[in-house]
Design brief:
Length: 80
C-alpha cells in the first residue's frame, strides 16, 4: 500500500518560498499568478496489515515527524 501525504503551511503563516516562486513566475511573464503557497508531497510504501492499520500508522508519522502541526496542515490518501 502506498501513502501520499500532502503538507502545507497553515493560513496566516508567512511563506517566503511561495512568495519567491510568485515573483519568479511574474518575471517570466506569468503575470496572472498570485497567492502562491509552497508545500511538500511525501510518497511512501507501507507494509500494513489492513487499511485501518495503515491510516493509523500514517497519522502517527505525520504527528510525530513529517508535519510541524503548529504551522502546517497535512492530509493523506492511501493507494493500493
Amino acid at each position: 500500500m502506498k501513502a501520499l501525504i500532502k503538507i502545507t503551511l497553515k493560513n496566516g503563516v508567512l511563506d517566503p518560498q511561495g512568495k519567491a516562486i510568485e515573483h519568479a513566475l511574474d518575471s517570466l511573464g506569468f503575470d496572472g499568478v498570485s497567492d502562491v503557497r509552497q508545500g511538500k508531497l511525501i510518497e511512501l510504501d507501507l507494509n500494513a496489515a489492513n487499511e485501518a492499520a495503515a491510516r493509523e500508522e500514517v497519522e502517527q508519522m505525520c504527528q510525530k515527524l513529517l508535519a510541524n502541526t503548529v504551522i502546517e496542515n497535512y492530509s493523506f490518501e492511501l493507494v493500493s
